[in-house]
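User: Is it possible to get a 3D structure for a protein together with its bound compound? The compound here is zinc ion. I've pasted both below.
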Amino acid sequence: MCVHELGLLRGVVATVEQAAASSGATRVEAVGLRVGTLSGAEPEALAGAWPIASAGTVTEGAELVIESVAAAVFCPVCDKAQPIDEFFALTCPVCGTPTANLVSGREFEVTYADMDIPRAHT
Ligand SMILES: [Zn+2]
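Assistant: Yes, that's possible. Here is the predicted structure of the complex:
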């Protein structure tokens, strides 16, 4: 089991718990997570640690839906973002210009939480 991923997920659980508490939700069906390929978090390890991180919280039993985000750098020569697939290869894959301007790949954020919000009877 990976302590690093577990720590990240505890933060995710805390975020969703706050959202659930403010909307009065008692159950969470699914949690969406955007994970960049350079974020240092492995989607497989996250999925494996999720039941442990969510146990005993409002997110217990919720499905963790991981959206992987490819890394990209902004190339000033091409004047656009170019995807990179090698870790730390901060070079435009099209024209070879070195660029440290990473525009995506480090994401680690909750995108949504699907919650059961009790509705008042009309
Ligand atoms: Zn380029």
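Helices lie at 3-23, 43-54. The mean pLDDT is 91.
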